[in-house]
Specification:
Helices cover 22% and strands 36% of the residues. By secondary structure, the chain is of the alpha+beta class. Helix 2 packs antiparallel against helix 3.
């Protein structure tokens, strides 16, 4: 390190530099998530029967209530007719019983009939009223079962591949059903957060909506923008993580059910934060540090405390004030106090000495320097 500080005994290193900036930086949390439909509905037959027709195309967008398939309605139609016939018969019997009761009550008022006979007739009327009510319920049940012969979409969404064919016998116990309808707009992304970040997310969510961005599996291309939805109510004790969800409108269908994506959740903004390129930060036994360029073209090691990383920039929470010049390239060849040479950023291919007056002296061929009895050689840029 002593030789590095003096800058003697080694050629000066050519380095690249960048200015330390102050800017507003979004504070984000990144996680890997899985796309999940807000609703996944398996369309099953509510009655047993033979599948007579299928009205949908695989992958088709369907509306809630739209007919998807038809089960043989013959048996249920007969059940409806039978229930209605029973209801008609018992209704007629009730009407007769009520007329008889009215006559008996008139005779009782004339003291021409025993009261017991009137009470018996009144009980019969009550019995028949109950029978008619049961018949109406049976008729309604038969009508409902008849409606079940037409399988309809329970929600608006995209129907998947057909799970049954025409002629198959279907029943309510079929695990696969006839088709599966998924709601893709809006759509959710489920991801896991370390328990150490739960408090930060909860605190940020109290202040308003947290923006969320879904990126592709490589984490480079943005697929959709949405917002944080909710946290689960229990931490997974085996992993120490908590499941969370973000919701996306997904009008263009960029997110697909069960797709793996990267989630970037913004939990706040650091106002006028000090940022440097990620390449400027180095790591050693004492922690993170950067090299700053001094006015005498020497490098100075500065210990720093880093914060969030946003793209190719990293926040410096402590150590820099903004406005300094940090070394971003060539820092592996220098020490604290080393003499450095700035890289040529003009892109010109001028030959040494072409610019008279001594300009670009650092790009000249190696020359002897006898000052102080020592010899020092300048670096020639490629």
């Amino acid at each position: 390190m002593a030789g590095g500080r003096s800058g003697r005994g080694r050629p000066s290193a050519t380095v690249g530099t960048a200015k330390v900036e102050k800017t507003d930086v979004p504070l984000t949390i990144s996680a890997i998530g899985t796309v999940q439909p807000t609703v996944t509905a398996t369309v099953r037959s509510q009655i047993s029967g033979v599948l007579k027709a299928i009205y949908f195309k695989e992958g088709q967008l369907v509306s809630k209530g739209q007919a998807l398939a038809q089960v043989d309605s013959g048996p249920t139609s007969q059940a409806v007719a039978q229930a209605q016939g029973t209801l008609a018969r018992d209704t007629a019997q009730l009407a007769v019983a009520r007329m008889d009761l009215k006559r008996y009550q008139t005779l009782l008022a004339q003291d021409s009939i025993a009261k017991q006979q009137v009470d018996t007739q009144a009980a019969l009327v009550k019995q028949l009223e109950g029978t008619v009510q049961a018949d109406k319920a049976a008729s309604g049940t038969a009508q409902i079962n008849l409606g079940y012969t037409t399988l309809r979409a329970p929600v608006s969404g995209r129907v998947g591949l057909r799970q049954a064919d025409i002629g198959n016998y279907v029943s309510p116990g079929d695990a696969n059903g006839v088709a599966i309808v998924t709601v893709e707009s809006p759509i959710d992304v489920e991801f896991s957060l370390p328990q150490a970040q739960i408090g930060q997310v909860r605190e940020a969510s109290r202040s308003g909506t947290l923006p969320a961005v879904a990126l592709d599996q490589a984490g480079k291309n943005e697929l959709a923008q949405g917002s944080f939805l909710t946290l689960n109510n229990v931490i997974d004790s085996t992993t120490g993580t908590l499941k969370a969800k973000a919701r996306f409108e997904n009008h263009d269908g960029a997110l697909f059910p069960s797709q793996f994506v990267n989630i970037r959740l913004q939990v706040g903004t650091a106002d006028q934060a000090v940022v440097v390129p990620v390449s400027a930060v180095r790591y050693g036994p004492n922690g993170s540090f950067v090299f700053t360029l001094q006015s005498d073209e020497t490098a100075k090691l500065v210990n720093v405390t880093t914060g969030a990383t946003v793209g190719d920039k990293i926040v410096i929470a402590k150590g820099l004030n903004g406005g300094e010049t940090v070394i971003t390239e060539g820092a592996d060849r220098i020490d604290d106090g080393s003499k450095v040479t700035l890289a040529d950023t003009s892109g010109a291919g001028a030959t040494p000495g072409a610019n008279g007056g001594g300009q670009h002296r650092r790009r000249n061929a190696a020359q002897g320097d006898t000052q102080g009895g020592g010899q020092r050689q300048a670096t020639t840029s490629p």
